[in-house]
Amino acid sequence: MRVSDAKLRVYDLPLNATYKNSLAAKIRQKSVVLMLSTEDGQVGISSIEPDTPNYSEETWYEIQEIVNREFFPLLMSGDTLEIPSFCEKMNERVYGHLMSKSLVETALYDLKAKSQNVSVSRVLGQTIDRPIPLIGWVGIGSKDKRLQETRSWLDAGYKCIKYKISRDMDDFPDLLSEARKQFGYGFRIRIDANQGLTENLANNLIGRIEKFEISLLEQPIEREDIQGMASITKKSGIPIMADESAFSLNAVKNLIREGACNIVKIKVMRSGGITEAGKIASLAESNGIRCVIGNGFSTSLGTSIEANFYLGTPSTWKYPDMQYAEFVGPLKLKEDIVRDRIQIQNGNLIPRSGPGFGFSHKELRDVAEFI
Q1: Number of C-beta neighbours around residue 241 at 10 A
Q2: Which are the contacts of 257, defined by CB distance < 8 A and separation ≥ 6?
Q3: How far apart are the C-alpha atoms of 158 and 135, rounded to whole Å?
Q4: What would the pLDDT profile of 40-83 be if each residue is shown by its tens digit?
Q5: CA–CA separation, 136 vs 161, rounded Å?
Q6: CA–CA separation, 106 and 113 (whole Å)
Q7: Domains in the chain and their CATH numbers?
Q8: Residue 31 belongs to what H/E stretch?
Q9: Which of 325 and 141 is assigned the larger pLDDT?
Q10: Partners of 164 in beta bridges
Q11: How many CA atoms lie within 13 A of 101 on its CB side?
Q12: What is 166-185 written as a DSSP string?
């Protein structure tokens, strides 16, 4: 593959509500889109949706700057672009900036798969087509509101519910008790603290709620406190998942070495791309650590990138309780970057059937573009 043109487009997308967790509240989402063209008319596209600064390692404008200044010259050098060797060149040119690297690498994967007229998941080795079961999410709010939202997700066909929590959680065990009383035990429950607890609060909470059959507690304390994560994991009767702490392959190596989690969340966009995400999945599997794939605020294109990695990496969904992906971004967007959104039906994501990640550059919308 030789790239003849490279363009960036940045969108400012309105969300359909205010979404709040223990870190921040947000009403809009930025999306950086990369388009790579070849002389034979193929166009590879990718998108990346950075979260708030206390969650993502890069902002949208840092991604734009790094890709423009550092990676465009490499892309336009005229060399044949083999993905592994190009990733090495990016690493030689820039340390870190994994989100910027992911944006470029996934666009190259889209180009490669389109040149073969297959999906990226097929390039990765997928042999089975299947819908992807998703979580429903319930944000921070009153007990009655959260129970109502739980019922809505379950009625819509979802079999796994994720509750957001913060330090103000005195009534949270009562919420879980009432949810199990009203809706039974036929669905799985995940809990996400987004770093919002202390070690003592986390241990106290676990003791009060483990009887409700909780699948996992996600990132209970600050991302840098690996020793605290290890201490909680060793004592907990609920599996502990690292999210914000699991931002790279080296970070996951450290978590595993310290015994600081039972599960890691993998985000293709955060880890440096499909290649690095695959290394994380392999490392986790070889150490008995399970994986959850997910991204809370992706566009349809960003979600399709994560979904192709999920389908092409069976180790990430071989455990029944881990198969529920967290691809809920498109449901939160009032406007998407594409005209025809990715389909979600009865609690399942329906993978796109087209080549690459399933989207053509011609499907990108113009109306939300702000730069």
Answers
A1: 27
A2: none
A3: 6
A4: 899 999 999 987 666 678 999 999 999 999 999 999 987 777 99
A5: 5
A6: 10
A7: 3-119 (3.30.390.10), 123-355 (3.20.20.120)
A8: strand 25-38
A9: 325
A10: 192
A11: 27
A12: -S--TTHHHHHHHHHHHHTT
The answer to whether 98 and 248 are in contact (CB under 8 A) is yes
- Give the gyration radius of the chain's Cα atoms: 20
Of 40, 75, 283, the C-alpha closest to 87 is 75
Q: What is the overall mean pLDDT for the chain?
A: 92
Q: Identify the DSSP state of 325.
A: B
118: tokens are: 């297959």
Give me the pLDDT at residue 267, please: 94
CA distance 346 to 114: 29
Q: Residue 21 — pLDDT band, cuts 50, 70, 90?
A: low
Provide, rounded to the nearest whole percent, the portion of the chain with pLDDT above 70: 96
Q: Are strands 326-327 and 3-20 parallel, antiparallel or unpaired?
A: unpaired
Query: DSSP string of 61-126?
Result: HHHHHHIIIIIHHHHTT-----HHHHHHHHHHH-SS-HHHHHHHHHHHHHHHHHHHTSBHHHHTT-
Largest CA distance in the chain: 63
- The alpha-helical segments, DSSP class H, found in 190-267 are 199-209, 226-235, 249-258
The per-residue pLDDT for range 117-170, each reduced to its tens digit, is 999 999 999 877 889 999 999 988 899 999 999 999 999 999 999 999 988 777
Neighbouring residues of 348: CB distance < 8 A, sequence distance ≥ 6: 131, 132, 133, 134, 157
Whole-angstrom distance, CA of residue 310 vs CA of residue 225: 29
Percent of the chain with pLDDT over 90: 80
Tokens of 43: 């166009």
Taking only the tens place, the pLDDT of each residue in 268-320 is 999 999 999 999 999 999 999 999 998 888 999 999 999 999 999 988 888 88
Q: Is the dihedral of CA 187, 192, 193, 198 positive or negative?
A: positive
What is the C-alpha separation between 153 and 147, in angstroms, rounded? 10
What residue type is assigned to position 196 of the chain? G
Look up residue 46 and give its two tokens.
């990718």
